[in-house]
Amino acid sequence: MPRNVLFMIPTLDVGGTEMQLALLAKRLLQSEFRPHILCTRREGELAAELRGLGIPIECLNLDRPVSFQACRQVKWFCRDWKIDILHSFQFGMDLSAVRGARSAGVRAVFTSRREIPDWMQKRHLRVQRIANRKTDLVVCNSEAVRQDACAREGLPPEKTRVIHNGFPEEWIPSRPLVQESDRERVFLRPFQLRPEEKALVCIANFSPVKNHLRLLDAAKKVLLQGIDFRLFLIGEGPLLEEARAHSDRVGLVATSVFLGKRKDRLEFLAECDALALPSLSEGFPNAVLEAQALGIPVVASNVGGIPELVEHGETGWTFDPTEVNSIAKALWTVLTYTQDALRCATEAQARARAKFTAREMVSRYVALYSELCPPS
Q1: What is the mean pLDDT of the chain?
Q2: Which of 232, 240, 291, 296 is deepest in the core (most CB within 10 A)?
Q3: DSSP H or E stretch at residue 111
Q4: Domain holding 50: CATH number?
Q5: Is residue 63 over pLDDT 80?
Q6: CB 67 within 8 A of CB 95
Q7: Using alpha carbons only, what angle is made at residue 172 by residues 169 and 177, rounded to the nearest 5 degrees?
Q8: Average pLDDT value for residue range 237-251
Q9: Among residues 165, 143, 166, 183, which one has the least CA distance to residue 296?
Q10: Which residues are registered as beta bridge partners of 85?
Q11: How many independent structural domains does the chain possess?
């Protein structure tokens, strides 16, 4: 008998957590679990595809995710859809999700931790800890996130589980794309790169934690050392215009290219020579996993769950995101030492194929759901 799973999330806009949830929901259709999705704020771009696959999706259109109204509506949907398992994603809605599910008699309740939330204040923690009391298990997407949740929220380790993000195994090429010297660069062609000019890309929305200004400062240092490259920045956000202005101030007008939001980011990434991620905090970044799976060399901050993906000098290079010189050294290395970059990309791709596929991720979720909600 199929068991019904209700995923709760603010929106299905294109983002790291949202794409991982969409991937999980699609793969669950091939299992004994039937996914349903409840958005608390609005639907978003990913909803149409998922609904087209037959996944029920509803939206609460709530301004306040923690409220009596929210609890009541969660309870209604759990009863109407005969939900066996509720799994909420992202902070802010866990209390309403947990209370609504419990009052509806849902058999198992999961919440998620997918970031290291330095922004959390006492009031946020208070609400989260109340929700934790009625939560069966907290799923974290990296060991670093799990340790932070245990320390910050007082969660007992046995009430947590780590399931890393996954990348579709059928999209992993047979060998690193950076090795393909004759690959056709359709997406890079409009930018008219010179034959010796490298393509470096950063995929991250423009917010303080993503640290774009220090990346631009480091790029300037590398440029002054005579390295010929173009820096492509994919993303949008509140600090986009500030980053543009900073690029102009440090003299990177001809080097940095702001591309905004790109639905074809994977195709673009596949044509680049390296990915850089300078974040001050990360849980388990999709951009790094995507680059490694495709065989694109990576340089990234040594924070959060990134060292679980990037072993310095083995599967990429890490740096101190607070030090411009540290970032610049890593950029210079990946853009200069082509054979070392290929070696790291090859090893990283092999690890992604062995440990971080969508198949592995979904099998672990299925095992976890089955453990706490066995067939009745």
Answers
A1: 95
A2: 291
A3: strand 108-113
A4: 3.40.50.2000
A5: no
A6: no
A7: 170
A8: 97
A9: 183
A10: 5, 108
A11: 2
297's tokens? 């060399």
- Could you tell me if 259 and 333 lie in one domain? yes
List, in sequence order, every residue forming a beta bridge with 28; answer none if it has no partner: none
Pairing of strands 229-234, 198-203: parallel
* Structural domain containing residue 190: 169-355
The owner of tokens 């290079």 is 317
Q: How many CA atoms lie within 13 A of 95 on its CB side?
A: 15
- Look at 62 and 265; give whichever has higher pLDDT: 265
Residue 201 has pLDDT above 90, yes or no: yes
- For residues 215 and 239, the answer to whether their CB atoms sit within 8 Å is no
Angle at 362 between CA 358 and CA 367, to 5 degrees: 150
Instruction: Name 354's Cβ contacts closer than 8 Å, sequence gap at least 6.
Output: none
- pTM score of the predicted model: 0.94
pLDDT for position 181: 72
SS in 3 state form for 20-64? HHHHHHHHHCCCCEEEEEEECCCCCCCHHHHHHCCCCEEECCCCC
Do 118 and 207 lie in one domain? The reply is: no
Chain center to CA of 231? 21
Q: Which residue in this structure is represented by tokens 């909803």? A: 47
Domain shared by 156 and 201, yes or no: no
Regarding whether 127 and 208 lie in a shared domain, the answer is no
Instruction: Examine the pLDDT at 291 and tell me if it is beyond 90.
Output: yes
| 3-state secondary structure labels for all residues of 301-319 | ECCCCHHHCCCECCCEEEE
Q: Are residues 31 and 161 in the same domain?
A: yes
* Alpha carbons 125 and 151: distance in angstroms, whole number: 12
Task: Judge if 211 and 293 occupy the same domain.
Answer: yes
Torsion of CA 190, 193, 195, 199, to 10 degrees: -110
Q: Do 276 and 157 share a structural domain?
A: no
274 phi/psi in degrees, rounded to 5: -165, 155
Q: How far apart are CA 286 and CA 15, in angstroms?
A: 9
